[in-house]
Design a protein that fits this description.
The protein is of the alpha/beta class and 198 residues long. It has eight helices and six strands. A six-stranded mixed sheet has the order 3-2-4-1-5-6, with helices on both faces. Helix 4 crosses helix 5 and helix 6 packs across helix 7.
């Protein structure tokens, strides 16, 4: 059971999100819609927690080191009235890598690697793309980070990370977690063994 509250924000939209391209760990910047979503997420966090609840003394702020997550954190913190640069990064919060598939759309993956694409559709949690990571591997990367969580925290990370946290913290079955929609511009609150979208 998670003993501290975890406020999770997925980075804002990128052009590759809009095109349904597999980004993984490639550093794709936010687009105009993503910039607005990042600020909206910060406003939602402020509304949920109140001015005292978002202060640096009340929350630890941590982001994935990729540009799209750091930019989202800066915009969210600005919307909360905080110093946009005052946060940590942790490489364990990076998105899972899709290896050789990064930059491709799913129809392109299916055309190039139909057998592998079908295998992933049948077991999305455990399938490892060529040169990439599975959700199960991402879970092993995230576990040590989650075990160090010693205070209420606000995290800006990625869709894959949110899905794994849903399984690890809330016990969502992995096959369901792997298919969960992870919204941009909203806030996902993990508390005890539950999660709730705001």
């Amino acid at each position: 059971m998670l003993s501290h509250r975890l406020i999770f924000i997925r980075h804002g939209e990128t052009d590759w999100n809009a095109e349904a391209r597999l980004q993984g760990q490639l550093d794709i910047p936010l687009n105009a819609r993503g910039l607005a979503q990042a600020s909206e997420a910060g406003k939602r966090a402020l509304k949920i927690l109140g001015p005292d609840g978002v202060r640096d003394s009340a929350l630890r702020y941590v982001a994935s080191p990729l540009d799209r997550t750091r930019h989202t954190m800066r915009l969210a913190r600005s919307a909360m009235g905080l110093d946009p640069e005052s946060f940590e990064t942790d490489p364990r919060l990076m998105e899972l890598t899709f290896g050789e598939w990064e930059g491709l759309t799913w129809p392109e993956v299916q055309a190039r690697s139909p057998h592998s694409a079908n295998w992933r559709e049948g077991d999305k949690w455990n399938f490892v793309p060529p040169g990439g990571e599975s959700y199960a591997m991402l879970e092993e990367r995230l576990r040590p980070w989650l075990e160090t969580l010693s205070s209420d925290s606000l995290v800006v990370s990625h869709g894959g990370v949110a899905r794994v946290l849903m399984a690890m913290i809330a016990g969502l079955p992995p096959e369901r977690a792997a298919l969960s929609d992870i919204w941009q511009g909203r806030v996902l609150v993990f508390q005890e063994n539950r999660f709730n979208w705001i």
